[in-house]
């Protein structure tokens, strides 16, 4: 199949390149408009109690909650003085005349103590917007923002909509910054790796095509389902990173085939037969890992899954179609515009020293083959040490602290918590329906006695539906808030009434429960897909099981470092974030999907070359050593390039993006060095021929349906010979 595909692409190379040019043009124009089309929310489970409480409250009482909080303050005047009161009154009057505004609640209207700071030099207004959905309200806020300022007073804007707007804006800025930072560095590194400018630019072309193509795909998906703006982060990370990795792998093999004296057409055919098959297996594995996110009900995670799948599949298709077509056109000109590099002297053109049997990777391979047990024990101990902090992970919902310290929504939240009585902009909502308001009063008194509750008031009432607003000590994401939610849900409801507990803290609780319930299914899907694809690729039941275990080791080490840094607060000054003492549970789940796929990606890179040598020689030790020798440099280079892509995101302002970036960098470094270069070869050396064992029926399945790197039928000997712990 792959050899046939290589011949097809060579014949249709100009048509393929023309189609790629059209896709890039569409992606750069229509596809780039995806930023203005995607949604900003999607963090809730629609079936959770908190979501049902919000829906019922909106249907029966009208939409509740504070969309925008406008905090006015003065260094000298108090809220009672004309210098403060008059500017606020004028601004509020103007706001109430705007079509974007549904209601404005102020201390001057209600005399509510919670709306005035304890020093009486600040007050805030609660603005409810008229939009029916989150995207509409964000657009309304953007238009309304200039009208919120009060002359002569300091104005700071917070609230849910302001937070979403700030997060979306900074996400877009972070992506742009990451691309601007990573592209020049990638080009320089690729020139150093390939030693030529033409070869170095081909991975960037494929990377750009993957990202722009994924933009088009996601915008098309957005026509039939809501997609979160945060999917763009995954598209850039995964799409650009994997496209560059795949292109590096394909171009390296193509140059190797040319150096062996083959014609351009034959080199493309051989490249597709070997590296093309590896790219297909890797792409499908990573895409299926990202697809595991689709089982979660939160639109945020589903969007990440959709964006990741689009990016991976388009990167894979580009590497299997556009790249070989480009190589067929370039031929030996792939080595044009050579850059003289001192360390490349003495190597064959287009072929590194490692390929000729020397170099650092050859020495590492020989060392691991001679002493597999010390390597196995040493690496395993180090990975366990790195993973240890993960055992004390604490989960909690994200809040305004994911923003930089000077971001207005965060400043407003912190000032209200510190300077205002009650101290919470995210009260817990308790919806009581089915009984009149009079029957709710005894229940209200019971709510006020719950530990941690500071005040309870009726936020809205109509007919047989009453909404209670419960304030509490501490932060919305803190332990006190979570304890209050649990206690409120345990309270017996008034006779004949239904009670639903909602609000931000309740939504955090429901999110954790929802993710916990579906996490085992996600793990099962990822592991099952990996086992199946790696079996079809390598014809072994041992290697896929070992690959899953190796993946878990590298991911566990990454999670341990993430907890040590972002939960415990180490390196917070260096990285520029505020530690919260907990981790948002959606972050490890997203990291698990991406890192499991990426770890398998490097496993496939290594084992593909090992299997190729095993099919040729039947010598396990020599196959493992030569496989590491031939792919070690490529895997290291691919990891370095991916780290450059990811590192751009750690420079942004959103702390949860930093968390994912740091976690991915740690996992990539660990996986490409300790795991793939040392642990995997050591275990394969010890397992000997067990590496290639499969039961008779499964061996026959592989011989018939396996995805192999050869035109010839799969040999029966490696699968049926008696396994023995020999080299």
From TrEMBL:
Highest taxon listed in the record's lineage: Bacteria
Keyword terms of this UniProt record: Cell membrane, Membrane, Transmembrane, Transmembrane helix
Cross-referenced InterPro entries: MMPL_dom (IPR004869), Mycobact_MmpL (IPR050545), SSD (IPR000731)
GO cellular component: plasma membrane
Topology of this chain in the membrane: Multi-pass membrane protein
Cell compartment(s), UniProt: Cell membrane
Family: Belongs to the resistance-nodulation-cell division (RND) (TC 2.A.6) family. MmpL subfamily.
PANTHER family given in the database record: MEMBRANE PROTEIN MJ1562-RELATED, MEMBRANE PROTEIN SCO6666-RELATED
Protein name (record): Putative drug exporter of the RND superfamily
């Amino acid at each position: 199949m792959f050899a046939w595909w290589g011949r097809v692409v060579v014949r249709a190379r100009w048509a393929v390149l023309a189609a790629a040019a059209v896709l890039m043009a569409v992606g750069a124009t229509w596809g780039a408009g995806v930023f203005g089309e995607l949604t900003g929310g999607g963090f809730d489970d629609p079936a959770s109690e908190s979501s049902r409480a919000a829906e019922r409250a909106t249907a029966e009482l009208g939409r509740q909650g504070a969309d925008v909080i406008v905090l006015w303050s003065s260094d000298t005047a108090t809220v009672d003085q004309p210098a403060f009161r008059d500017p606020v009154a004028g601004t509020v009057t103007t706001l109430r005349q705007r079509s974007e505004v549904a209601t404005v609640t102020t201390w001057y209207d209600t005399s509510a103590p919670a709306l005035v700071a304890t020093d009486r030099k600040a007050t805030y207004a609660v603005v409810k917007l008229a939009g029916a959905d989150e995207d509409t309200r964000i657009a309304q806020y953007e238009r309304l923002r200039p009208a919120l300022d009060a002359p002569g007073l300091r104005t700071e804007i917070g609230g849910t909509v302001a937070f979403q707007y700030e997060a979306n804006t900074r996400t877009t800025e972070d992506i742009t910054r990451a691309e601007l930072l990573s592209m020049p560095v990638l080009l320089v590194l690729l020139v150093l790796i390939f030693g030529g400018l033409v070869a170095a630019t081909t991975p960037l072309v494929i990377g750009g095509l993957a990202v722009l193509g994924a933009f088009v795909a996601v915008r098309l998906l957005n026509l039939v389902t809501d997609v979160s703006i945060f999917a763009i982060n995954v598209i850039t990370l995964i799409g650009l990173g994997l496209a560059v990795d795949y292109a590096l792998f394909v171009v390296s093999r193509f140059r190797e085939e040319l150096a062996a004296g083959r014609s351009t057409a034959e080199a493309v055919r051989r490249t597709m037969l070997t590296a093309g098959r590896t790219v297909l297996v890797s792409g499908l594995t990573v895409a299926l890992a990202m697809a595991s996110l689709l089982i979660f009900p939160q639109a945020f995670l589903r969007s990440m899954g959709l964006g990741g799948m689009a990016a991976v599949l388009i990167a894979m298709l580009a590497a299997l179609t556009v790249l070989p077509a480009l190589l067929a056109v370039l031929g030996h000109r792939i080595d044009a515009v050579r850059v003289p590099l001192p360390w490349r002297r003495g190597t064959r053109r287009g072929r590194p020293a490692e390929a000729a049997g020397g170099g650092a990777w050859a020495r590492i391979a020989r060392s691991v083959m001679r002493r597999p047990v010390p390597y196995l024990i040493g690496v395993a101990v180090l990975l366990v040490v790195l993973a240890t902090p993960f055992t004390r992970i604490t989960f909690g919902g994200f809040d305004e602290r994911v923003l930089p310290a000077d971001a207005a929504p965060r400043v407003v939240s912190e000032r209200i918590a510190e300077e205002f009585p009650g101290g919470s902009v995210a009260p817990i909502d308790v919806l009581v329906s089915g009984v009149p308001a009079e029957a709710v009063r005894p229940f209200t008194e019971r709510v006020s006695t719950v530990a941690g509750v500071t005040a309870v008031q009726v936020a809205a009432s109509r007919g047989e539906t009453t909404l209670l607003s419960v304030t509490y000590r501490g932060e919305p994401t803190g332990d006190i808030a979570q304890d209050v939610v649990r206690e409120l849900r345990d309270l017996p409801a008034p006779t004949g009434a239904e009670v639903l507990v909602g609000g931000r803290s309740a939504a955090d609780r429901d999110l954790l429960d929802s993710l916990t319930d579906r996490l085992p299914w996600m793990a099962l899907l990822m592991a099952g897909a990996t086992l199946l694809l790696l079996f079809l690729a390598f014809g072994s039941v041992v290697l896929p099981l070992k690959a899953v275990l190796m993946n878990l080791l590298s991911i566990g080490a990454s999670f341990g470092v993430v907890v040590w840094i972002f939960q415990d607060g180490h390196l917070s000054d260096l990285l520029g974030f505020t530690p919260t003492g907990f981790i948002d549970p959606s972050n490890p789940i997203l990291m698990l999907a991406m890192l499991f796929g990426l770890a398998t990606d490097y496993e496939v890179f290594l084992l593909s070359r090992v299997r190729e040598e095993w099919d040729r020689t039947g010598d396990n030790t020599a196959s493992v050593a030569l496989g590491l020798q031939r792919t070690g440099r490529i895997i290291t280079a691919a990891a370095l390039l991916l780290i450059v892509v990811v590192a751009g995101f750690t420079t942004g302002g959103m702390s949860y993006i930093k968390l994912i970036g740091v976690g991915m960098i740690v996992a990539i470094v660990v996986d490409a060095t300790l795991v793939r270069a040392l642990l995997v070869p050591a275990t394969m050396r010890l397992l000997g021929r067990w590496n290639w064992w499969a039961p008779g029926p499964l061996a026959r399945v592989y011989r018939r349906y396996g995805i192999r790197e050869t035109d010839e039928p799969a040999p029966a000997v490696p699968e049926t010979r008696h396994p023995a712990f020999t080299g």
